[in-house]
Amino acid sequence: MDIFYYKATDQLGKPIEGNLEASDYQNAVAQLRGLNYFPIQLSNNQSHKKFSKNFPFQLNGLGSKISAKDLVSLTEQLATLVESGITLDKSLSLLVDLTEKPQAKEILTEVHKKVHAGSSFADALAEYPKVFSKLYINMIRAGEAGGTLAPSLTSVASFLDKNEELKANIRSAMIYPAILTSVGGFAILVLFTVVIPRFTKLFDELGAALPLPTKIMLFLSTFITNHWMAIIISFILLVAGFIFYLKQEKGRLHWDGIVLRLPLFGPLAQKIEVSRFSRTMATLLSSGVAILAALNITQAILNNRMIAATMSQLRKGLKEGKGFSKPLQETGIFPPLAIHMMTVGEETGMLDKMLTKVANTYDREIDRSVKQLISLIEPFMILSMALVIGFIVISMLLAIFSINEINF
Q: Which of 163, 168, 205, 406 is 20 to 30 A from residue 134's alpha carbon, by CA?
């Protein structure tokens, strides 16, 4: 008998970990399922200890990551192979041969070995929670149970592709403001640390009575030059404190509530979460995952904890027979348009299809909102940079004019 270390979730989605004794991998999985647990990670403790002994300082996730783009491609290829009638075992074998990336090949090889040994595909994927999300694993599990593995693979590939497309659109939209901020900030820093100090010596030698704007500018320049190390350390501590604050559940919940109330950014964050919620639920429901299980998975992948917290209210409403859209409406978080579309889908028995339409609608809304936000941010940033640089120039000119008043 071997000792197996496991990570799993119970029926409520609560994470559980521990050790169990079993004769082999399949027996360990069967024991977990007998306890009504959903396995996420299962490994032989002896091999784990051996690895830990040889490498006492492990880097979690090292060599076990696959890029989102590669994961989409691999999932699409596997869906095509399975859909063409090739067995899953043979499809995985072919996929291993087709894969060129070493990390992906290593993971797929291990997954293929477990499937070949009799493990379910979902359980084999669950060994790599940092690569395959809970959504991915549960969709595959539902596809295996319902005999619709190929459509499930296609659905999850489409979901991942849409998700990455949304992220790419937001990232590309933020490139220009980021460059503008970096260049402008660097230019201002050079003025305060290199250019202005040279004028400071000149003004001190002449002994001129300097105007107030010039005194403010010289004070800022001197402070930055003399205390640059303290400023950097303070900035690092401030960032570290903010990250620690966000790591706390109460802190993250409070911050996410603030984000939702911000002008411009709040509505955008809300639309992003509505789109993510709708697409995730639609993908899971269309793959045959039970609505409560789908809700647990969706709650875990939402970024805004304030919106994620409302899922408990939705879960309670579903258990009480209130339906899907009414409890969502009572949360006060989801927009009226999304609620109306979900209500129509619920009444017509096409909730998954209507959720997909909601996601597509809000994807377009997000694209428009991001463009509008950038169109407002760009002139604001340019104006801010112009005001700072204009203040510096005017302060210097006022000082130069004051020098002309000195009696030589």
A: 168
